[in-house]
Write the structure tokens for this entry.
Amino acid sequence: MKVTSPKRKRKMGEVDYGIFYTVLLLLAIGTVMVYSASSYYSMFTYNDSMYFLKKQLIWAPLGIVTMSFMMHYDYHKLRKYTPAIIIICVPLLIAVFFFSGVNGAQRWITLGPLSFQPSDLTKYAVVLFLAMTLDMKGEGVKEFKTGILPFLGVAGFFAGLVLLEKNLSIASVIMIVTFIMLFASGGRVKHLFGIVAPAMVGAALFFTISTAYRRARMLNFINPWKDPAGNGYQLIQSFYALGAGGITGLGLGQSRQKTLYMPEPHNDFILSIIGEELGLIGCVCIIILFVIFIWRGINVAMKARDTYGTLLAIGITSVIAVQSLINIAVVTGSMPVTGVPLPFISYGGTSLVINMTAMGILLNISRQIEGKQQIKNL
């Protein structure tokens, strides 16, 4: 593998405008839909229909600022901060257990009006760590014991801490992205698909059915009407919303399910409200935007100046791709219900800023591509 020295002077070009405008468009759509989805809930709960919109209008510009900063910050300099970032994630993930849980899960650090979910930072910290260490490992990744297992061990450690918070979705994102990065860095197919993939699937199934709570959610995914007032309630409301929207939707702001039928409709199930108000057409447009983002992200990875940039671009793109895929699958009843927001669309504070910061890193990589030369020996 080719490794470029961080001290080497680089010519900065233009950003990938496909990624830039796609992210901004998703953010704009998300801001509008957060207001539309949350207005009734906000009025009923906080006596202010714009409660969540006001917060989103603070976090969204802040996210744009952090994205803009990272666009101009040489991504190679992140190497020296990566060990500190990955280490800091450990006490942060443990700290959540000293705060009150929400709906049976302890995922947040709450300080006054602010709340922070360490797992949002952790998933990108793992990407930074894997990109750096896989680049250093080079051809050694082709060995299973010394090239695959150590990376799986580190990723599994952080995924395990996240899983203890009852956050199976983000734990799954971490492990899936790790698998993708190992494959992209040159891991042998027989190791990844013959040993790692079956083990990951087995572990996921074990943790899914290991407790009565997770087993109930799995069973309700298969037949949500078995417990329509309990575990199946949210998914059933999602079906009602998507069905009512039809092809063209009921119109912006006209959702019925957001009127206290769908719990916190501005969060994980916001796509259901989009489907109800903007119809199948609106949902397809959202999906197309994510497909464009993934396509452009892969393009940036293929043209990155060095292996480190390639792996970093693959990891960042994969986080958004996997998380959006899981959210869409959950909302449409294609997989068990789990709490994972739709990137750039769902309401979020620090999580939105962290995502936008990662987009800035990806855009910085796009500014340092070497023409159409692709990284070899991957």
